[in-house]
Amino acid sequence: MDAAIERGKAQFGWIAGRLLIGPVLLFVLSISLYLLLPLPTDGSNLFWSAEWNFQPVNVLVYLLYNIVQAFVTALTAVILSLAFLRAEGMPDTAAA
Asked: What global pTM score does this model have?
């Protein structure tokens, strides 16, 4: 456990910088996309108005939000995987 803590301390700056630059900024982007969606107040839902008119802009924004969220998850996994490789002294194949 002590060795794992030491490896974590050694990699913290590398991980924190990349997580702040990539996933956190993308998360803020996705939240701002989500805030663009109008909240239905008239008995309608996100994709259909109260008069049953389809809302394609809402669907597009919702899809973009989910795509960005999926990319944030994948990017976080890649960053943490690369940090593990660096901490274990394994070669970084992404740089090759």
From this structure: 0.65
Per the structure, the count of domains in the chain is 1
- Is residue 31 within 8 A of residue 95, CB to CB? The reply is no
User: For 27-54, how does the pLDDT look when each residue is reduced to its tens digit (9 = 90+)?
Assistant: 888 788 777 766 655 555 666 666 667 7
Asked if 55 and 48 touch (Cβ cutoff 8 Å), the reply is yes
Owning domain of residue 82: 2-92
Give the burial string for 51-71 (b: 16+ CB within 10 Å, else e). eeeebeebeebbeebeebbee
Q: Which residues, other chains included, contact 73 with Cβ-Cβ below 8 Å and sequence gap of 6+?
A: none
